[in-house]
C-alpha cells in the first residue's frame, strides 16, 4: 500500500491529497478553489446530511431556502459583519449583458438576507421562536484552497433563529451545539471534539459569542468542525427584527446562527485515515459491508451464489451492503480499492474457504482477517460494526490525549503546539499573548472551564485555553 499512498509520517498533506484522489472522493474544479465531489465522497456527505438534518429537526428547526444572490447593501447594514467577510466576497456587477444598478454578493453566509425576511415574518411574541435551517452552497474566495478543508465554494447547513429573550437564544445556540453537532461528531463520526468558547479575536463577525467544536487531526493540528453563534441583537437592530411583547411594547429579537459544512469530510479523512486509506465509522458508512467474490467456482452453489445469499441476509438484518462479483477484475486490485474507500467490513467469499464452510471477515479498523462459518457471518458482522465504531473513537481519543500537554506559560504552549495541543491557563495568555501566538502560527482554539464545560464569557475566572496550529 505504500506505493499507493504517501505514508502519513512522511508527508501528511501529500497523504491527504493522495487519499482523496486514489479513493475517488473528490477532484479540483475548473475554477481555482472549487471542487467536484465524486460519488464516493458525496455518498458520505449525504449520510452526514441525513444524520445532521434529523438532529436539527429534533431541535425544532424547519428547513427553508434563501437566495444565492444578496444585495451588497444588506451586508453593509451590520458593520462588523461586512468588515469580517469583505476579503472573501465574490461580487456580481454585470447580469444579462448590462451593469447592475447595485452589485450583488454571492452568499458567504445568510444572516443578512434571512434577517431581512425574519423582519417580515415576525410581528408578535407569538411568532417566536422562529427556527430556520437551510442546506445550501456558499462562496468565500479562498486564497489557499485545500479540498474539503478550504474551498471557494462549499456545501453546508446554516441555521438561523430568532427569540424573545437573550436567555432563550443562548439556550438554543447551545442546544444545537451539543444535541446536534457534538452528538453527531462523537456518536456517528467517532471524532472526539473539544467544545468551547471562541475568544473575541476568533469570534464570528457580528456575533456576541461563538461556540466551537475542535477536533485533533492525525498530524496533531486542530480543525474547527462546526460553530454556533449568539448574535445578540446586532442583526435584529440592523434589519429591524422586532416583535410586540406580551406587555404590549415593541422589542428587538435575539438571534442565533450555526453551521457545519463539507469540512467535516476533511476532518473524517484526517482523523481516522491511515496509510491504507480512509476508515469510515460504521454508523456513517454508506457501505458498511462489502461482500466480495474472490474467485468463482464451477456450477451452482459456488462463491458467487453464496455471496449473493450473504448480501441478502445482511441487508435483511438492516446492514448497508454492496456486492462485488467482478471476478474479471483482479481480486488484489479490488481489495486495495476497498481499503482505500474505508469500508468498515469486507466479507470475502472464495472457493477454498467456502469448501470448508467459511467466509473471511476482514475488519478495516484493525486489518484483522478471520474465517467465519457462513451461518455465523451476519452475527459476526453486526458485532464487528458495533465494536469498530467504538474502536475508532477510542483510538482518536487516545491520540488526542497523547498529543495534548498541560503547560503553565504561553512560551510552553507555543512550543507544545508544534506537535499537538496545549492546555494552558487563559490568564497566562490573555489578549496580548493571543496576538503573540498568532504571529507564530498558533491560535487559541477555544476556552473552557476547569471542569471542561463551556463558559459564558472569556472574562470568567480560571478558564483554560486550548492552543494549537490549525487548518
Computed structural class? alpha+beta
| Low-pLDDT residue intervals, each spanning 5 or more residues | none
Going by CATH, what is the homologous superfamily of the largest domain?
A: Bira Bifunctional Protein, Domain 2
Annotation field: number of helices = 14
Tell me the domain tally. 3
Strand content: 25-35%
**What distance separates the N and C termini?**
27 Å
CATH C-level of the largest domain: Alpha Beta
Shape: globular
Overall pLDDT: 96
* CATH topology (fold) name of the largest domain: BirA Bifunctional Protein, domain 2
Give me the count of strands: 23
Radius of gyration: 25 Å
**How would a crystallographer describe the biggest sheet?**
7 strands, mixed
CATH architecture of the largest domain: 2-Layer Sandwich
Helix amount: 25-40%
Q: Can you list the strand order of the major beta sheet? A: 3-7-8-14-11-10-9
Amino acid at each position: 500500500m505504500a506505493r499507493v499512498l504517501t505514508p502519513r509520517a512522511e508527508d501528511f498533506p501529500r497523504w491527504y491529497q493522495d487519499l482523496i484522489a486514489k479513493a475517488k472522493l473528490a477532484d479540483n474544479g475548473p475554477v481555482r478553489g472549487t471542487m467536484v465531489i465524486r460519488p464516493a465522497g458525496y455518498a458520505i456527505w449525504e449520510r452526514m446530511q441525513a444524520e445532521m438534518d434529523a438532529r436539527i429537526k429534533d431541535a425544532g428547526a424547519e428547513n427553508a431556502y434563501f437566495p444565492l444572490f444578496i444585495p451588497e447593501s444588506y451586508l453593509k447594514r451590520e458593520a462588523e459583519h461586512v468588515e469580517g467577510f469583505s476579503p472573501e466576497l465574490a461580487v456580481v456587477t454585470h447580469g444579462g449583458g448590462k451593469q447592475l444598478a447595485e452589485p450583488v454578493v454571492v452568499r458567504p453566509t445568510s444572516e443578512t438576507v434571512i434577517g431581512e425576511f425574519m423582519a417580515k415574518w415576525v410581528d408578535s411574541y407569538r411568532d417566536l421562536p422562529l427556527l430556520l435551517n437551510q442546506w445550501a452552497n456558499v462562496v468565500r474566495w479562498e486564497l489557499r484552497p485545500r479540498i474539503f478543508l478550504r474551498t471557494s465554494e462549499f456545501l453546508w447547513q446554516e441555521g438561523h433563529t430568532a427569540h424573545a429573550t437573550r436567555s432563550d437564544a443562548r439556550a438554543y445556540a447551545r442546544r444545537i451545539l451539543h444535541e446536534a453537532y457534538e452528538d453527531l461528531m462523537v456518536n456517528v463520526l467517532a471524532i472526539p471534539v473539544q467544545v468551547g468558547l471562541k475568544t473575541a479575536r476568533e469570534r464570528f463577525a457580528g456575533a456576541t459569542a461563538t461556540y466551537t467544536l475542535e477536533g485533533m487531526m492525525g498530524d496533531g493540528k486542530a480543525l474547527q468542525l462546526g460553530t454556533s453563534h449568539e448574535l445578540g441583537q446586532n442583526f435584529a437592530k440592523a434589519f429591524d427584527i422586532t416583535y410586540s411583547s406580551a406587555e404590549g411594547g415593541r422589542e428587538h429579537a435575539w438571534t442565533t446562527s450555526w453551521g457545519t459544512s463539507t469540512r467535516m469530510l476533511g476532518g473524517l479523512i484526517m482523523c481516522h485515515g491511515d496509510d491504507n486509506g480512509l476508515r469510515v465509522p460504521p454508523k456513517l458508512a454508506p457501505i458498511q459491508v462489502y461482500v466480495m467474490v474472490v474467485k468463482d467456482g464451477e456450477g451452482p452453489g459456488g462463491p458467487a451464489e453464496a455471496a449473493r445469499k450473504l448480501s441478502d441476509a445482511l441487508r435483511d438484518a438492516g446492514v448497508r451492503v454492496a456486492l462485488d462479483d467482478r471476478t474479471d477484475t483482479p481480486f488484489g486490485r479490488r481489495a486495495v480499492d476497498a481499503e482505500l474507500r474505508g469500508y468498515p467490513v469486507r466479507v470475502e467469499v472464495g472457493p477454498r474457504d467456502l469448501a470448508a464452510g467459511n467466509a473471511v471477515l476482514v475488519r478495516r479498523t484493525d486489518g484483522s482477517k478471520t474465517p467465519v462459518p457462513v451461518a455465523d457471518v451476519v452475527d459476526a458482522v453486526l458485532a464487528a460494526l458495533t465494536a469498530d465504531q467504538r474502536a475508532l473513537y477510542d483510538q482518536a481519543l487516545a491520540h488526542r490525549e497523547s498529543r495534548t500537554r498541560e503547560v503553565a506559560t504561553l512560551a510552553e504552549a507555543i512550543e507544545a503546539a508544534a506537535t499537538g495541543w496545549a492546555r494552558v491557563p487563559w490568564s497566562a495568555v490573555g489578549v496580548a499573548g493571543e496576538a503573540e501566538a498568532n504571529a507564530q502560527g498558533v491560535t487559541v482554539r477555544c476556552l473552557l472551564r476547569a471542569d471542561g464545560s463551556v463558559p459564558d464569557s472569556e472574562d470568567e475566572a480560571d478558564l483554560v485555553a486550548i492552543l494549537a496550529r490549525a487548518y
